[in-house]
Amino acid sequence: MHPTSSVPVRRGRHVAAALVALLLVLAGAAVAVTGTSTTPRADAATAVAAKGRLVGAIRVGGSLYGGTVKVTLFDMNWKVLGSTTARSTYQLSVAPGSYRIQVTDTRPTYDVNRFAPADLTATVRSAQTVQRDASMRKGASITGTVRTNGAIASGARVVAANPYGQSFETIANRQGQFAIAGLPTASYSVFTYDARGQWADASTYLRNRQAGTNANIAINLKRRAGSLVVNIVGGKQQLPANGYVTARNTSTGQWYVAKAKNGNVSFAGVMPGPYELVVPDSGNYLGRTGKVPGGRHVPAGNVLFTAFELTQRGGSVSGTVADARVPTRALKGVQVQLFDKYGTKVGSAWTTPTGRFLIQGPLRTDTGYKVVLSRPDGGWITFGTGGNDTCQYGSYTSNAFSIRVGSTSNLGALPLKAIGHAQNPQCIPQTTSPTATPTTTAPTATPTTSAPTTAPTSSAPTSAPTSAPTTSAPTSQPTATVTVTVTASPTP
Question: Which residues fall within 8 angstroms of residue 238, CB to CB, at 6 or more apart?
Fold first, then answer.
């Protein structure tokens, strides 16, 4: 038998009955991989720091493992930053920070000799090399046969989830047979989903499965399945939710995952009974977990329609950007990027013609946020038509500050410094009156440097709109923002 398999991914530590595990596995699948590695782009907050290296050996017993493994790099919130395949050793070039590393056997899930994943943590400083070796060992396995009301359940989906946020899944073959191997030592709930969505039943619980052992079970789905359709709202309006939503049966613990589209999500073929929903962030609203309103139950063989409201707005950040030497000179078209205390970009905006910016989104209460100011396309900003009306600016990183949900953190005026006159001869800071004589010590003679006599043009927007970031699943998703270059080392 050769059922389809999926690779396990661990995202977080505090989960209930592995409710979030599958959601995050699916969210992690959105990371684009070309060849054997992904290389997220460098961000302004980390580009100035020298990169470090994460290296390690991959061992089985006392020997190097010559088989292929997948090495996945996460931030401390289990957000995927990059991945690569490797043999025997791995090397990751990373920005300074704290990371989680997961080494996963690439053999299919149904291979009963498959290794369990190995999880590692490391903190890397600027220009530092840190070694973390991975020790692989054969995992536990679960095998069996699936039937629906006594008939063979070809193509049934089987998921084994443990309490530590890990889930492993496979698809039964034409005879309804399945195997899930490479499981870490733990207790497991085995959830089974009829391929046709017509039958359902409670999960099968397997206590304390030890590495290297197998459990063989028979599954028979014998209850008529129901359906659940949810409309996601916030502030009494439809929200543009497009992330993954989880529905958990509070009687059986069984959970289902479906992707919302424009604020609507449907679950077909679910176990009848009471449900709670895990809805991700949407727009400026924070995601939340809550019961289906009114305590209504999904009926057997029928559909329950309901609405679910997100009630808490996220925080926001505002301020203005001005010339550091001439505070009255507002700077338009400056990119303002917001980073959390882990160095992950969580929002961005552009300054308006008056220098103002506003970053909104599902921003949570926390300390250690910073904003980074930069002007793309060489840093040039043009203020008028005169020969001295174009200045070139560098970048600026703010001090750390706090954000609170439901409120705006006003950073006031932030200074962006123009490059010195020797390197930027066409920038002569003006006073509050554009026609006034400059009060700086700029030379009266025409500069003899090789600078162009006409100001360079910039393709940057003259008035860029502000934008709010969107996020994915409840714990975070979507684009990789920590500087990571992932490369696999050759076999020794």
Answer: 231, 232, 262, 263
Q: What would the two tokens of residue 351 be?
A: 């300054």
Q: Is 236 left (phi over 0), alpha (psi -120 to 50) or beta?
A: left
pTM confidence score: 0.62
Q: Are strands 315-323 and 408-416 parallel, antiparallel or unpaired?
A: parallel
C-alpha distance from residue 27 to each of 117, 177, 267, 279, 331 (Å): 19, 28, 17, 13, 38
**CA-CA distance, 435 to 451, in Å (whole number)?**
24
Closest alpha carbon to 217 in 201, 205, 230, 229:
205
Q: Could you tell me the CA-to-CA distances from 228 to 243, 305, 377 in Å, in that order?
A: 17, 6, 50
* Strand residue runs (E) in 210-262: 214-221, 223-224, 226-234, 237-238, 244-249, 255-259
Per-residue pLDDT of the chain (492 residues; tens, 9 = 90+): 433 334 444 433 333 333 333 333 333 333 322 233 333 333 444 444 688 999 999 999 889 999 999 999 999 888 899 999 999 999 999 989 899 999 999 999 889 899 999 999 999 998 999 999 999 999 999 999 999 999 999 999 999 998 887 889 999 999 999 999 999 999 999 999 999 999 999 889 999 999 999 999 999 999 999 999 999 999 888 998 888 999 999 998 888 889 999 999 999 999 999 999 999 999 899 999 999 999 999 999 999 999 999 999 999 999 999 998 888 889 999 999 999 998 888 999 999 999 999 999 999 999 999 999 998 877 888 876 665 677 889 999 999 999 999 999 999 999 998 886 666 666 765 544 444 434 444 444 434 434 343 443 433 333 333 333 333 333 333 333 333 444 333 333
**What does the alpha-carbon distance between residue 37 and residue 313 come to, in Å, rounded to a whole number?**
37
Distance CA 181, CA 168 (A): 8
Which three-class secondary structure state does DSSP give residue 298? strand
**DSSP H helical ranges for 126-280:** none
For 189, the token pair is 């709930």
* Beta carbons within 10 angstroms of residue 308's beta carbon: 22
264, 209, 255, 272: which is closest to 232 by C-alpha? 264
- Please give the single-letter amino acid code of residue 76: M
Pairing of strands 186-193, 214-221: unpaired
CA atoms within 13 A on the CB side of 230: 35
H or E element at residue 338: strand 335-339
3-class state of residue 132 by DSSP: coil
Cα–Cα separations (whole angstroms), residue 38 to 61, 95, 176, 239, 479: 30, 15, 36, 32, 12
CA-wise closest residue to 317 among 273, 364, 247, 278: 364
Radius of gyration of the chain (CA): 27
